[in-house]
């Protein structure tokens, strides 16, 4: 399977164009979706491209806080052995938000015998793409990620970034042009950095909360490249925001009374000639598109732990909040989880809306593509589309209501074992089980506020 690895020629060409680069940050995405890595000097890059880089395999067994999870089997069971990281094509780029001339490079992990490291989430996506290509389908993917730009006050309070009086900043003011103007310097630097890194940044909009935004990324007929770009994009937004003294927040629900942030995955399938197989004059798309939706609906409940991987993720699922709460589908309808957007027949595709901005991009897209493939292979019928307000209609199958329930459903899922690989799923669930237990056992300020003097 082609994992999209880079070559020494790629490195030589880059260094020839950038003689001032003195260091590079080498990065790998862990199962929680966190980028981890180290900084190397320029003269170390050639060996990384020729032979790979030895890195502790336990980096794939860390929880979201960066602590070892021994239950993954990747820490002491292996003696914390090294695995081999190799560079990904097209990801060696300048980091324009850092003062010193610096590059960054995404890596993917292999065993000492050159087999894909089972716990590396990117390999799950490689397998999902390969499975569709083996069935003569080319997945076309785009990722839309909502985020907040926040400013931390001297008292530690987080507030939406922007200008104007406090009362103006607290307004929802969706689609506000003033909000874009207030932060024009930040967005100008984001677009400039995207151009430097070759990322296809498109439309900018102010979302349904003060300080919340979205910038679209172009769809790609190379799904691996599309997700690699989305990984790089999140880091870019964080980096440029920090340069301006701001925090770019990708939490699913950073504020109780404000909209959550979603990861919307847009998917279609091309044939070998590049024609969209979901295209149809029918607003619901082709039969193939409806079968894909059938697969996504049938597997959504058992997959929710991937789409909502953290305790905070479940706070996003609020009725009539633009976050979907059911395994539903509809046409030109934003109250459902699976939307067929309006547009010309040739543009028919599905928009998967259930995942939060905090989800691991590789695992999310691998799970989506796996469900699409199974829906098509089994010719699953999605049932009738939801019309009108999907929040007020009972839809089966019911989704898990809590993090623990979602993890239990995922553990019992045969589908996720196929979609992600059993070993990858085992590591992911070991990490999230440990996090869930720790989070649930932690006494919070709300405990004291509710119970200290009343019970």
Structural notes for this entry:
With about 450 residues, this protein is α+β, with helices and mostly antiparallel strands. The chain has two domains: about 10-115, Glutamine synthetase, N-terminal domain (Ubiquitin-like (UB roll), Roll); about 130-420, Glutamine synthetase/guanido kinase, catalytic domain (Creatine Kinase, Chain A, domain 2). Helices cover about 35% and strands about 20% of the residues. It contains 13 helices and 15 strands. The protein has helices spanning about 10-15, 45-50, 120-135, 165-170, 175-180, 185-195, 225-245, 285-305, 360-375, 405-410, 415-420, 420-440, 445-450, and strands spanning about 25-30, 35-40, 55, 80-85, 95, 100-110, 140-150, 160, 200-205, 210-215, 245-250, 265-270, 330, 340, 350. The strands form two sheets. Strands 7, 8, 9, 10, 11, 12, 13, 14 and 15 form a nine-stranded mixed β-sheet that branches. Strands 1, 2, 3, 4, 5 and 6 form a six-stranded mixed β-sheet that branches. A hairpin with a 5-residue loop joins strand 7 (about 140-150) and strand 8 (about 160). Helix 3 (about 120-135) runs parallel beside helix 9 (about 360-375), helix 9 packs across helix 11 (about 415-420) and helix 10 runs antiparallel to helix 12 (about 420-440). It is globular, with a radius of gyration of 22 Å. It starts with 7 loop residues before the first helix and ends with a helix. The mean pLDDT is about 95.
């Amino acid at each position: 399977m082609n994992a999209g690895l880079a070559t020494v020629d790629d490195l030589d060409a880059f260094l020839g164009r950038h003689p001032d680069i003195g260091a590079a940050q080498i990065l790998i995405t862990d199962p929680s979706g966190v980028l981890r890595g180290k900084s190397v000097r320029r003269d170390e890059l050639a060996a990384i491209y020729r032979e790979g880089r030895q890195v502790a395999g336990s980096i794939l067994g860390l929880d979201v806080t960066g602590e070892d999870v021994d239950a993954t089997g990747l820490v002491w069971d292996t003696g914390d052995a090294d695995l081999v990281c190799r560079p990904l094509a097209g990801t060696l780029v300048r980091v324009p938000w850092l003062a010193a001339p610096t590059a960054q490079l995404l890596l993917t992990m292999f065993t000492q015998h050159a087999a894909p490291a089972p716990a590396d989430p990117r390999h799950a996506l490689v397998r999902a793409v390969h499975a569709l290509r083996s069935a003569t389908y080319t997945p076309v993917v785009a990722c839309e990620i909502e985020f907040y730009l926040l400013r931390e006050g001297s008292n530690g309070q987080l507030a939406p970034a922007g200008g104007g009086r406090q009362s103006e900043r607290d307004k929802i003011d969706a689609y506000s042009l003033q909000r874009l103007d207030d932060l024009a310097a930040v967005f100008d630097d984001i677009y400039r950095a995207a151009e430097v890194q070759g990322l296809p940044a498109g439309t900018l909009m102010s979302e349904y909360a003060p300080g919340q935004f979205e910038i679209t990324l172009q769809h790609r007929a190379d799904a691996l490249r599309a997700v690699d770009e989305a990984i790089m994009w999140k880091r870019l937004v964080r980096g440029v925001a920090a340069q301006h003294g701001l925090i770019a927040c990708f939490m699913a629900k950073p504020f109780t009374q404000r909209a959550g942030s979603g990861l919307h995955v847009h998917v279609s399938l091309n044939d070998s000639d590049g024609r969209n197989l979901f295209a149809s004059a029918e607003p619901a798309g082709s039969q193939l598109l409806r079968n894909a939706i059938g697969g996504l609906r049938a597997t959504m409940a058992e997959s929710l732990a991937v789409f909502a991987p953290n305790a905070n993720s479940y706070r996003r699922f609020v009725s009539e909040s633009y976050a979907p709460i059911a395994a539903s589908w509809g046409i030109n309808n934003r109250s459902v989880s699976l939307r067929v957007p309006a547009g010309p027949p040739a543009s028919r595709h599905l928009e998967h809306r259930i995942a939060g901005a905090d989800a691991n991009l590789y695992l999310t897209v691998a799970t989506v593509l796996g469900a699409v493939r199974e829906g098509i292979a089994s010719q699953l019928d999605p049932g009738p589309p939801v019309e009108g307000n999907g929040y007020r209609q009972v839809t089966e199958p019911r989704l898990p209501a809590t993090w623990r329930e979602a993890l239990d459903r995922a553990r019992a899922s045969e589908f996720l074992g196929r979609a992600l690989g059993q070993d990858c799923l085992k590591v992911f669930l070991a990490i999230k089980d440990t996090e869930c237990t720790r989070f649930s056992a932690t006494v919070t300020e709300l405990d004291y506020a509710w119970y200290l003097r009343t019970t």
